[in-house]
Amino acid sequence: MHPLLYGDLTLCLALVVCAQSPSCPSLCTCVLHGRSNAKGLRYSNLFFQVRCICKLTVLCKNPALTAIPVDLPSDAVKFRLERTSVSRIFRGAFSAMPELLYLWLTYNSINVLHPRSFTNLSFLHELRLDGNLLSSFPWEGLRDVPRLRTLGLHNNRLARIPPLAARYLANVTYLDLSSNRLSTLPNDLTALWPFSDSTQTQRSVVLGETPHCRSFVRMITKMKKANVSQ
User: Fold this and answer.
1) Where are the alpha helices (DSSP H) in the chain?
2) Is 107 left (phi over 0), alpha (psi -120 to 50) or beta?
3) Bridge-partner residues for 176, per DSSP?
4) Are 160 and 137 in contact (CB under 8 A)?
5) Which residue from 33, 51, 206, 228 puts its CA 20 to 30 A from 42's CA?
6) Model confidence pLDDT, tens digit, residues 49-59
7) First to last CA, the chain
8) Cα 142 to Cα 138: distance, rounded to the nearest angstrom
9) H-run or E-run covering 160
10) What beta strand segments (E) does the chain contain?
């Protein structure tokens, strides 16, 4: 058999594995994205190994949806809840998806987040809650997502950020607070976003047009200059 046929056969087998349809919640769609990685090919006796890497995305985008589905697939790496009528996120709402990396809950009607909404999501990297009705955020709930890097809270109703938020933002490198109702910020801005030294991981805070935006930028600039001069 010509060596090129091995590649074709490998791809075929990989597609068969990745094309297996997972059980999908009602009013949602599930999409598998996969690629193959073939190793150990032998021309003489047709021996080869195939590894298929499949990633599952779950999209729930239906105005008739009023609650997080309970039959979520356990192997999902991305969950998108968009433009639904969901208003409350209860404790452990996503705990059935322990491999989740991306959680987008954007442009719904969410006004209540349980402090333990994100239990069993220790691998989560990105959490987006843009375009909801949150007047408060359970910052202590971020203890359940130690690998979180991106937190999007754009276009909500947040009026203040408590100083205690600092202790739960240590690993977050991108924080979007724009288009909220922020009129005050913690007096000690370094508590909210620590800049301990010039070698620290680059971080971004998006505040948008708030009364404190310009003063915040000036203070961050001064802190950076001070760190560089030390």
Assistant:
1) 3-18, 189-192, 213-229
2) left
3) 152, 206
4) no
5) 33
6) 545 568 999 99
7) 67
8) 8
9) none
10) 28-39, 49-60, 76-82, 88-89, 102-106, 112-113, 126-128, 150-152, 174-176, 204-206
Contacts of 44 (CB under 8 A, 6+ apart): none
Is residue 190 within 8 A of residue 211, CB to CB? The reply is: no
Tens of pLDDT, residues 96-108: 999 999 999 999 9
| Token pair for 19 | 């094309």
Look at the block and give the residue holding tokens 């997972």: 22
Q: What DSSP element (H or E) covers 154?
A: none
For the chain, the residue count is: 230
- The structure tokens listed for 99 are 């491999």
Torsion of CA 164, 165, 167, 168, to 10 degrees: 140
Burial 27-61 (b: 16+ CB within 10 A, else e): ebebebeeebebeeeeeeeeebebebebbbebbbe
Q: What is the largest CA-CA distance in the chain?
A: 73
The span from the CA of 169 to the CA of 127, in Å, is 13
Structural domains in the chain, sorted by start:
56-229 (3.80.10.10)
Contact 114, 137 (CB under 8 A): no
Contact 94, 121 (CB under 8 A): yes
Model confidence pTM above 0.85? no
